[in-house]
């Protein structure tokens, strides 16, 4: 038996079809009492104007055959928050060919200062810390092996808001199916960091961290940039190097971040004094009303700390450890010293007042350091 099409009623031969039900009648509309006032009509609220999308600006562009297929790809570095333009007169950097004046992350938006690299339909991002000495980046095309078609992009930027910060590097590769940004090894050293492409398929990165230099070699394998060698060698006598302890601060969402050096160039007891280091207050992680940092002695030297204080707006704070008895030696300028030897890490915590952090926070460190000689 064939199934009837939807909407048809089948009846047996000679049967009388059942009458179709009457369609339901609409309920009568209510009659308004003429004495009753008409219901009030709410004033129509104007619709909120649509938010304009931030303007995306092109910061750098070129046409390069990255994937080696014989055709050049259109390559663009762009950003909706980075504003290209002149930098402060004493913050310019000849090594960074694309300077930018500032970052404009919308208020209340938790977003980094970043740029987008676009190659054909592929994108990847690079964060550019908006530090005083990190105002820009550089892009360089490198042909790692002339015998193999294709090139890579080397991105260079400064490594932090310290005096003479090192350079940090990323390599971008594109193989026609994926665009990848590879961070390279990072180290310290005043104004340090250099990359060479000898033309044999390798990339050689060197950091001079007086008295030692670290050389890291990479090799490109397809879209990958693999580390194949790392060598540390002594290049100078420790007593000839400018040195000082390194400061790491617990920044929100980033963990402990290297922010600078303390007691810089104070390399003998006769040079002992108090030296300030300005920090970015809004970046601190505040946990249970406390901010944390670490002094790390990672160089061949011995540091003598006399006192450490934190200027937090109008408040001058001592480390929380100074509230216990006996107090550590670094709680007052009194000639008693906390000694840090190579490899030592000194945790510091400060209880801060409630409310938003001040824009600038200053750590004052009193003391000196002494280089350790290679001589017995």
Describe this protein's structure:
The chain has 376 residues and is mostly beta strands. It has no helices and 23 strands. It has strands spanning 57-64, 73-79, 82-84, 98-103, 114-119, 122-127, 136-142, 152-158, 167-174, 179-183, 194-196, 202-209, 212-221, 224-234, 246-251, 255-261, 273-280, 290-296, 301-312, 315-317, 338-340, 345-351, 360-371. It has a six-stranded antiparallel beta sheet with strand order 3-4-7-8-9-10, with no helix packed on it. Strands 17, 19, 20, 21 and 23 form a five-stranded antiparallel beta sheet that branches. The protein has a four-stranded antiparallel beta sheet with strand order 1-2-5-6, with no helix packed on it. β13 and β14 form a beta hairpin. It is globular. The N and C termini lie far apart (108 Å).
Main β-sheet: number of strands, strand sense, barrel status? 6 strands, antiparallel
Q: Number of helical runs?
A: 0
N-C termini distance: 108 Å
Q: Pairing-aware structural class of the strands and helices?
A: mainly beta
| Helical fraction | under 10%
Which series of helices and strands comes N to C? EEEEEEEEEEEEEEEEEEEEEEE
Shape by Cα distribution? globular
Which quaternary structure do these chains form?
A: single chain
Low-confidence stretches are 1-45, 88-92
Could you give the count of β-strands? 23
Residue-averaged pLDDT, rounded? Answer: 80
The strands making up the biggest β-sheet line up spatially as 3-4-7-8-9-10
Q: What proportion of the residues form beta strands (DSSP E)?
A: 35-45%
For the CA atoms, what is the radius of gyration? 33 Å
